Fold each of these.
Amino acid sequence: MSLVELTKDNEIAIITVNNPPVNALSPGVPEGISECIDNVCKDPSVKAAIIIGSGSTFVAGADIKEFGKITSGKTQRGIAFLPMLIRIEDCSKPVIMAIHGTAFGGGLELAMAGHYRIASPSAQVGQPEVKLGIIPGAAGTQRLPRLAGVAKGVELCADGNPIKAAEALKLGIIDRIIEGDLLKGALAFAREVAGKPTRKTRERNEKLGTPEQNAPIFAAARENARKKQRGLMAPLAAIDAVEAATKLPTFEEGCEAERKLFTECLFSDQSKAMIHVFFGEREVAKIPDVPKGTATIPVNSAAVVGAGTMGGGIAMAFANAGIPVLLKETDQAALDKGLATIQKNYANSVKRGRFTQQFMDERLKLIQPTLSYDDFGSVDMVIEAVFEGMALKKEVFGQLDRVCKPGSILASNTSTLNIDEIASATKRPAAVIGTHFFSPANVMRLLEIVRGKASSKEVIATCMQLSKKIGKIGVLVGNCRGFVGNRMFGPYRREAQFLVEEGASVEAVDKALYDYGMAMGPMATGDLAGLDVGWRIRKEFRHTEKPGVRQPLAEDRLCELGRYGQKTGAGWYKYDSERRAIPDPEVAQMVKKWGTEAGIPQRQISKEEIVDRCIYALVNEGARILEEGYALRSVDIDIIYLNGYGFPGHRGGPMWYADTVGLKKVYERICEFHKQHGELWEPAPLLKRLAEEGKGFADFNKDQGAAA
Ligand code: 3H9
């Protein structure tokens, strides 16, 4: 079958787009549609035409792969859908768009150029371009407000979230929902409207409102975008483009304004980064030696050992996916406390409208509390989430080995400990794997899947598949201390603390990184996670520290004073009863005193230095991890940071960001830090090599044969 095919059902033409997997408007598709429309116009026996997608979806948008080719100059060919859309709209015979699956981006723009739109009940429509750092570029910002009104038009283009068919019908984006066979329904609909005069969306101005009506809508949309999509240029550009639809005298002028804004966004670093993230999120699922089709173990039941913050969150993640889960504690008080937290979390979600009461009740029924291992014999997977200490973990795994059925997966939620050593407590190391969730585990999207040296491919494939089922993005990592995320987070937070000990204020460090785009500054993050967590880990690993190498000192001292962060009402900051952070002059004084006593020169530190020291600490460690093979690709590191550590999406992740800055520049800055601060800043060999060769981390991936 060709990319676009024209067939006929008597007097109705059927134009089928066939470009799997998502019928993107790749080169050849718009041309094919235009050609079919020309034939429809010419053929006197045709009274109406249907455009429909083959396979599981209508058209999911422009071919995103093309954008990189355009911005890198690999192709001179632009993406010009507008002439095709005008051709469809100008067709004198009704063109009906039959939508199933998703009509996203260019797909919705195509649909809106038709004279009618009908959809399956499960279909979704949307303009998600802002999630790729761009805006609709084929008149989406011009036609959508004409169909849905300005308020909804601007919301859909600026937020990028899709809506379901029922809402699209209410808004006037689609004209009818078709139950049952879509093509059959489309044929009947086409016969209903055949012969009737066609209406062009671009000429429907009745919903465009007046300047007085629109001004508050645009003002509110801009405020919302600045707050919720901090630092992103595309949402603001999308709002400008919709505003152009309401202000400029003609549709054509509106399209011209949209085109300019689209091009600015497309060539921005933000869009390149966000497109990298789009493909990266799909790339991480590809594991060279665990190919698609590797056998998996059905996980229909699970158990979690430990009902603390992590265990409770993990149990919720399973329950939310409909998987029954046992939740085990050692004593009734701890179990009751864990269950009460789970109930409170669900109740909060119900209050915020995220879940219904019925959903909450059903999920709670799936979580079965227990004080014994008695029922563990029947579960398909166990996740251990007990206190972070090797002796205890080994004891638990020894016990699991005795009680769990053969074939059951034994996973540890450890964030730092050696999976192979944990596995050595069992007689089935092939079944042991790390599943490192991030707090709160029921919310955070990242799941680091830690491959032990004996973890079987079946177990790895199952965990990768399971991550999707429980709403996570699974990234496979190797078994090194801290794995990928926390191993890098150590140097990042170390530098943040050093900066404070050298004279930067706690607030200045947090603000610099927040302004860079991080969800939270490193000091506030420490307070949220609990400073005592790192303190305990540092105590466990103190014997591995090299004598004479500088170590942060202030955080341990804060812990010694009982300042563990939010949970004790004080850490780097003070906290009020609403857990709002308040700068604490006492901390500033103490840290200055400790720093001076330790002989650390106190000085003024620039915002730029704060960002470079913290972010390049991530990059340098990331480069080591990559070279040592603990991450499969640099994009895997990026996806970990974006989904687990609040790294800003529009910077593409630490490794992508370094490539954007240029590794030569990054390397030179790291060399400066090395000179000033000593061996902790020794440049990673891979970084040095790539910088000298004028390459980026993405090139390293290609050289290694992995798609970046
Ligand atoms: C746009 O339209 C701009 C316009 O305004 C025009 C400007 C002039 N292109 O996600 P999945 C690949 S911008 C190329 O795993 P699902 C994807 O990489 C576009 N490739 O499936 C993956 O490949 P692989 C606006 C695409 O069922 C495979 O298809 N549209 C595209 O979970 C399967 O994808 C969007 O932003 C594409 N457009 O979800 C929609 N889409 O197997 C983006 C997917 O090699 N797409 N691929 O890894 C989506 O949101 C989801 O893919 C969708 C399906 C919901 C459609």
Amino acid sequence: MRKTAPAAAAAKARSRRPAKAKSAAPAPASSLKSKLAKLGIQRDFDFVLHLPLRYEDETRLTPIAEAHAGAPVQVEGTVIASEIAYRPRRQLVCKIEDASGLLYMRFLHFYGSQAKALAPGARVRVFGEARPGFFGAEMVHPRYRIVGENTPLPRALTPVYPTTAGLPQATLRRLIENALAQSELDETLPAHIPARFGMPAFRDAIDALHHPRPGDDARPLSDRTHPAWQRMKLEELLAQQLSMRLHYRERRSKSAPALKQAGALTAALLTRLPFRLTRAQNRAWAEIERDLGEPHPMHRLLQGDVGSGKTVVAALAALRAVENGMQAVVMAPTEILAEQHYRKFSEWLAPIGVELTWLSGGQKKKERAAAAADIASGVTRVAVGTHALFQEGIAFQSLGLAIVDEQHRFGVEQRLALRAKGSSAGGAAGIEPHQMMMSATPIPRTLSMSYYADLDVSLIDELPPGRTPVTTKLIAAERRDEVLARVRDACREGRQAYWVCPLIEDSSLLPAAPARKTRTRGRGPGRVEASQLQSVIDTHARLAAEFADLKVGLVHGRLAAQDKAAVMADFAAGRIQLLVATTVIEVGVDVPNASLMIIEHAERFGLAQLHQLRGRVGRGVADSVCILLYQKPLGELARARLKVVYESTDGFEIARQDLLLRGPGEYLGVRQSGAPLLRFADIERDLDLLEAARDLAPQLLQHHPEFARRHLARWMAGKSELMKVY
Ligand code: ADP
Ligand code: MG
């Protein structure tokens, strides 16, 4: 009834062939290997989990006359004419006919042998989508094969696998069959789990997905609602949850200094502040304070919309470390942001006698060596800077707390390095510092349940009083003159403005740029970026000419660190009235007197980015306005995206929409990194399974540790580290 046994036997019989090919011809084998690696296939078992993308129905023939655009079909006919045409370009055009009608097949790439085989009289079975063509219905590059008069039709659906250029379905299929025949498909879950959900056994699920049975309905297989798919999704989600649980356990089993002593410093800061903490800030601080008192490393995200006041909570936490005789470090992904923290911290901590040290990649060698010496000797109580703080040669005397602002802006590699260094920077053997992350980009619930399950979160869900919400305006670029008038008015009234240009800069690349040197090698600007940079410079020149009576500044990522810092300091001090900038000002920059922001080509920015940028205004008492300039015509998606930012000032709502529009890979910024994004499950669509997995994981670890271990080994081999991106 099922085709497992014969298929497996056939596969076994063939199984030695690929190995032989490998030894005989190493070059193609290694290129095969690299193609497979592109698909994420390294181990034998990866073939087993390389599941079809979709299924095609080749079990039936459709009369040619009934082949219409919109759905692929299979037809069969006899070649009645075949020719190589040269206009508009070289191509093979082949006319076939069945009892009902005529169809053209068109091949833009073909071999001579193909042209020969498709000679008049040949009988072909063709699979593809017919479209109306110049001469009649045609299929472009359909799949076809030459058949005999009575070649039987397949009895079941044909699986179609995700593949890559140069790796034909047939080859992939053969490799998968081999692997299936050789792999142990035993259970890694106790039987009651699949039974409870009405899911098949693992072996049966795998078999059902690779080998559809005659009569199987294509729909549930293709849209992944079939019970076999449900089983695979649960498997995958469970592996993710188990891995997160283990990270959590591992963390709880480690030691950190219990920063219990509440000394005079935190109290002194609170009394000296020109404002009172909001209720939400107090609550977040209480949660952090409790964690810091524990003898295990804290791993907590302080989340709050832009302007909610996370920095002061970070300062309190840093002081708590100092009060307990330990050091704290504050790191930001860009020089600009780190500088600003340094200024804020100096303002708050220096008067109460806390020794601060600045360290960044843009520093002179000598300054940096002096900073490193202070950090190592313990003169430094709080170090502030970029990720240069965690590079070779920087050792802390006794690090109690590491604070990372806008942590998700660091690249994945850097984040992993930060984690690793963070956990080895404690000094005393086996003692790790506490870790606190800050972010204004909220993590939607589904993501915090899945990717960030080993993360405690404190939320600042209210803005300090007296803020006037920013008014957002959408204005077409052709009305630029009106916008210029607004800028002039605002600046004449003593306020300041940002003019943001669409050069999206990867802030994670910025801090390391050496001072006084633009990078020309390695990751230097590509041509596109260079021309974009030129347009930023042009915009600055034009605006400076336009507003001859105003001081117009320019800041972008290619400036040397100290030039960037100087421009920002001038803007903060009011010496610059209009600041032309790229996205380098996106995170954290806090200049309360700036109340107007213009974003050019707003349609080119990400939603979270627009929200972050907009958060640079509305920080003072003046009514603030953010103008999104857009270029007509706007596509449908661009319009929808701008509408989200226009209608909402709630970072969570914007993030939710952003996640829906972009999907989790883009959202997390890990797509290119090869991090183990879920392959089968979709955290939004499969929320019920995600919730089930979250409940099952602790049960499995407690009652069936051996199953759990094997399950993780099967699904997470070599990937576990990457789950720690936060
Ligand atoms: P973010 O959460 O975006 O990092 P910041 O920490 O930069 O926000 O705070 C934004 C501004 O609000 C700063 O100027 C900060 O000093 C001020 N601020 C923070 N907390 C309060 C408060 N409770 N009341 C009034 N102003 C506050
Ligand atoms: Mg901030």
Amino acid sequence: MKYGFFDDASREYVITTPRTPLPWINYLGCESFFTLLSNTGGGYSFYRDARLRRLTRYRYNNCPLDQEGFRIYIKDGCNVWNPGWQPVQAELDRYCCRHGLGYTVIEGERDGIAARQEFMVPRGDNCLLIRFTVSNGGDETRPLSVFPYLEFCLWDAMDDSSNFQRNYSTGEVEVTASAIYHKTEYRERRDHYAVFWANRPVDGFDTSREAFIGTYSSPAHPEAVFGSGCTGSVAHGWQPIAAQQFDLVLQPGESRSILFGLGYIENPEEEKWESPGIINKSRAEALMAKYADDTAFDAALQDLRTYWEDLLSGFQVSSELESLDRMVNIWNQYQCMVTFNMSRSASYFESGIGRGMGFRDSCQDLLGFVHMIPERARERILDIAATQFPDGSAYHQYQPLTKKGNADIGSGFNDDPLWLIAGTDAYLRETGDWSILDEIVPFDNDPDLARSLMEHLRRSFNYTRTHLGPNGLPLIGRADWNDCLNLNCFSAHPGESFQVSGPSDGPVAESVFIAGMFVKYGRAWADICRHRELEDEAAEAEEAIAGMEAIVLDAGWDGAWFRRAYDAFGHVVGGKECEEGRIFLEPQGMCVMAGIGKESGQAEQALASVQEYLDTPFGIVLHQPAYTRYHLELGEISSYPPGYKENAGIFCHINPWIVCAEAELGHGDRAFEVYRKTAPAFIEDISEIHRTEPYVYSQMIAGKDAVSFGEAKNSWLTGTAAWSFLGVSQAILGVKPTLDGLQIDPCIPASVSGFTLSRRYRGARYEITVENPDGVQHGVKEMLVDGCPLAGNVIPVRDAGSTVQVRVIMG
Ligand code: BGC
């Protein structure tokens, strides 16, 4: 069942009922100011860091769901309703929400009154703009009152939701003609305030939640709206809000629009005050003046559309498969931008106060984003590298605002270092900008410990090379990619962290998965060394990699698949002797992607085992059999009920590894089959089962052991976005940036007769036509570049600005 449809021409998903299975959200903002916005107008805004600079409140786990947001109440006689249905939930005669790229439009209609809210975050400014348009479609004059409403957060979202003994006394606002300023803590340590404004005079306002809503009422029934209007309250402590009132009289056929804004303003220390106690509003006034009318709003929206059009034009495919095109051309790339911006910090499943930016997560996000804005990828790589320790290990997370490593979680996730090589390698392949390796970057954010990025990568590689266990496999530390496989941490008491309490750095537990990474990204490191003419270092690295490959095929091989790990007692994890967790997905994906066992047949066998034991109609599960009891020696993985999350859930992030692995072996049919099972547009029809947004990937779909098999959770912020884009663009469509040029190596279903693709690469445009006359799955028979035959399938780098015509004949 569907709750809307894709409008590809407008690059929108159109939701036709407010009662979606879960709130279906969008992200507005692509630089510093962000808003999460649901299809009914719920959500919140923040500046750069969802924990430290939260502008508006959001109560997770709330009941009813999704109450806080950017609400507009329309009072029409004794009828009160919202164009987005929430929170009053008065039935609408018509409802529609269009989530577009960086903007959302919500429309509602009731009793001949149509209302439209257009939301956007303009580029270059730190604000959310909302254009509200109301029209009288009837033939009578209609007097109406309109009330916008939002609730401020007292900046630090963690503190805001816990330190009430202080918070109830600190709230402060200032009110001018059409603007409400939220200035809590501005008098002391803050240099920023928020402003909510309207572009026309108000007929009333409130800034105290209690006055507007009522002590025992709710946003579904604000007393001011249902009663006699705004009260002019000025908040002192408690809960500061912004609410305004506009009394309008609409003639038949008449429309009116009001522009609202929510801005974040920073003032330098010496310019904080206009007069004692009165904040300096000049920057806010400039912002309000800039967005004072429809022309400014329309121009900003057009600018956003042009921006996205240009970004997406870097990779556009045209194939026989509509859902494939819409994933590749629009939604997967869009999600890659969002995951790049947010890492795993703020979504409807990530509270914004938890994890900040993940080291491994952000490195992987780069893989799907680097082709869009390489300059921002460059900056990100340097930020991430600065949170690495001098020995090559790394802080597992960091705060986006401070860019400092998070000491609570610390380091010891032993896959982290290698992901830095993965991200940097992707950047080099995309851009050829070797100068990044010479950038001087601190270790542990300490400028005294700064070294070149090249040295950071060297230490990444060497960290893994020198931290090996009894079988010669890499030590796992607190966890590897699977945060929940905690082989050294024996967490036996409620509330204890599964990862960081206890002796987390055992000398025994080893990861076959990291070994696969070492081979894959070690090769990338060796190539980088060779390009820098460090021949000896490259050869030395290759020797270590060959040694590791042999160990994987020995201690890491179980007979029909790759093992997962060895635990702290030296027991196999993910082997035939295990009663539960006999076969795991991650090492099959990573080892085959690394090419381990490709010649000798183990790779082929491992993927056949995946299909036999782990595949389901909704995607591939992480392991089988699921853990049915808590295994102290394995950790958090076995704390989830069977089928959920890391305990045999369909962890979408890993599915594209299998896409890449299948393509590595030339299996185009199977690669595509795996791809389509989790690709949102392909499963739009089962939205009532899947439940999360049909335009973006979710982290997890409940596995076959779960009661709710097929139900997704944790949408938007997942490495699935980047890896799926990599899988479809590089492994299936076969357009692969290499250090020396663009390689074309498609691996597609035999039934696909071909496709065309336009790709921007190092400033040149490649217009590629792939033909598959013999119905093969893999292999390039002939390639013509600007009409001339090419030896091999890597097109040497072309001049920026040029257009290259490429014809690829498979066979
Ligand atoms: C984390 C990833 C991790 C994955 C598997 C996600 O929630 O963000 O870093 O690799 O879970 O545990």
